[in-house]
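ok trying this again, last paste got cut off
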Amino acid sequence: MSDAVSTAIRVDGTALAAAVKDDLRERVSVLREQGVVPGLGTILVGQNPGSLSYVAGKHRDCAEVGIESIRLDLPETASEADIRAAIESMNTNPDVTAFIIQLPLPEGIDPTAMLELMDPAKDADGLHPINLGELVLAVPGGNGTIDTPLPCTPRGIVEMLRAYDIPIAGKHVTIIGQGLTVGRPLGLLLTRLEATATLTHSRTVDVAAEVRRADIVVAAAGVAGLVKPDWIAPGAAVIDVGITRVLSEETGTYRLRGDVDPAVASVAGYLSPVPGGVGPMTRAMLLKNVVEAAERG
């Protein structure tokens, strides 16, 4: 990457997601001509506002590309047995190509135990332990695809980097955050693509120092404005995953903020925005996992 840039190139996840949807719409049309109708199932427990919005968005996305929606909503009072029964119904429903269990689940319900009950072939999020295990076992140097669903956000990040011709192989990537949905699986996926990946977290002695070494920075800590311009090597690619609702003192309204200080744009070579960056690509990758599951049969 170049030694210095004045303004980062905007990595537009919204535009990229629209292109992915265009491709998926054509593939779904071909499947339907063959008598195969892809269907996404969702299991939602309770009335968490964020979860309600997220699930509704997934089903709107499905309608855009021709994927059918199968939705199971359970009350907050649902027992573990109720949730197990919902998962089994999704596993056996022939109309469900793939499905998700929307997290978080109510207190006292072990999400890992619920994920393990899913049919791995119907795992739309790519988070079933067997599918994560396939990612661990994948041979380095591959092309980023394996015959099992990949976690949506990591897959979306890789596709964003590739779309902007940002090199991955041989590059140093620093990931801020080691969560199950982003940090840990992204580290696995990037090392398979022959990058050197460093996962930092709350116990890392000097996160800024690790970030300064990176050609690519992925911020997934959920701390608004955490990453400052002096953390970034000139010309580095910065992918902002964090989303925090911040109250504006001027307007009294909430707005979305990422983990990356907007001033980073004066140093970085590439910068994904919040909103409009990783979020749309994550949702597009969920659809892609469903369509690929239908194509695999």
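PB: full thing came through this time. The longest helix spans residues 13-33.
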